Known about the structure:
2 copies of one chain form a homodimer. In chain A, helix 5 crosses helix 6, helix 6 packs across helix 8 and helix 8 runs antiparallel to helix 11. The N terminus of chain A is likely disordered. In chain A, about 70% of the residues lie in helices and about 0% in strands. The relative contact order of chain A is 0.09. Chain A starts with 16 loop residues before the first helix and ends with a helix. The first copy, chain A, has 11 helices and no strands. The longest helix of chain A is centred in the middle third of the chain and has 31 residues. The first copy, chain A, is mainly alpha-helical and about 220 residues long. Chain A binds a DNA duplex (19 and 19 nucleotides) through helix 2 and helix 3.
Amino acid sequence: MTKKTQRTERRSDALSKERIVEAAIEILDAEGENALTFRALAARLATGAGAIYWHVADKSELLTAATDHIIGRIMLDADGGPEDGIRAVAIGIFDAIDAHPWVGAQLSREPQQLAMMQIFESVGGRLQALGVAEGAQFDAASALVYYILGAAAQNAANARLSLAGGDRSASLAGIAARWAQLDPARFPFIHKVAPHLPEHDDRAQFLAGIDLLLAGIAAVQRGT
Amino acid sequence: MTKKTQRTERRSDALSKERIVEAAIEILDAEGENALTFRALAARLATGAGAIYWHVADKSELLTAATDHIIGRIMLDADGGPEDGIRAVAIGIFDAIDAHPWVGAQLSREPQQLAMMQIFESVGGRLQALGVAEGAQFDAASALVYYILGAAAQNAANARLSLAGGDRSASLAGIAARWAQLDPARFPFIHKVAPHLPEHDDRAQFLAGIDLLLAGIAAVQRGT
DNA sequence: ACCTGAACACCGTTCAAGT
DNA sequence: ACCTGAACACCGTTCAAGT
């Protein structure tokens, strides 16, 4: 019969690393990497800037945790046979970085973080299932992971540009225009390719690269 | 017969973009990315911080110019047949980033810079010489460039770690130790691979990845 | 144990003033 | 035209002080 029970709502939101990371992700997604400051984060969490340091060592740990959070979720639902599994992992990462460009930058900044290890493990394990020779597995896994991260970082950077200047097809057209300005004598290949850029599908091209690597791995395996 | 000609030595070193970029490269190489500030740069050039802005728009342009400077030199001396030329370009970039880790980070940050275009052109042109079908050239070139940049960024990050903690083999051993601590049930592949890490050769592994891609490109070409 | 918020040291960048 | 250096706005991080 206590009428004045815990009417104070008990701030269900006592600060925690998890809540901090979630708020950081919201800021990163909505306003980009530059907008994530401890002051902005503290304001959003309605606390002092210093409070965050009780739960998180520094900004680097915050970004690492945010990246692990995103990638960790992805890695759960990659399925299918070994080859398709590798494609699924790759596409999962690609789409995650499309949705959260800052993840791409962070992955290539901090190679020892858990997210990287998960990617490496899930690719490597599937290569084993694919029957790749023991001695070749490490190199093959590295190649796939390097490729995935390289594409990820590039896409993150391009997304950053698009964020600044309009939509995707507009910014592709802008890039094509810049390419066309390069000296044709010095850059013949780029000139030949530039017109195809606006119609070009990042995601399909990314997958094509994965398939090239898988084809190379298969070719080496059968001794071609 | 003017005795007091220009005895003032005429500071042969009037500020210029080129001198600024060179000084920036020296700081980046010697003390890392964090050490490059406009104040440090001004001090080294014996001028005011603001003077630099007369020659360079901002820090981003400075890093872009420094990166273009390094990569531009590399691209001149890649030689050999088309396949070997691609390997030479790749190894040139790898070694450049080994010597200047900050280049690796910068390349994946600014994909539209001249250095990237040169890499793309020199890889793409050689694919054409290799006889890769028109429609497959763009994807193949992208795959190679993504891979090269991904490996570059990872190596840059690892070099940053080594710079902090001792030499390369020591830091590889450190990484192997961290890998061994991961849960073996969740990370069986990493556990199998960890012991091979200390004896492992970054550069050879990087080249192995290039060869996988070239093998894949060849396989697709002959329709396998 | 956890939070507050002022303070510190340090940035990139600008700009009035000099030559 | 080019340089100087103080000033501005803004960081990450620390820490004495509170509850």
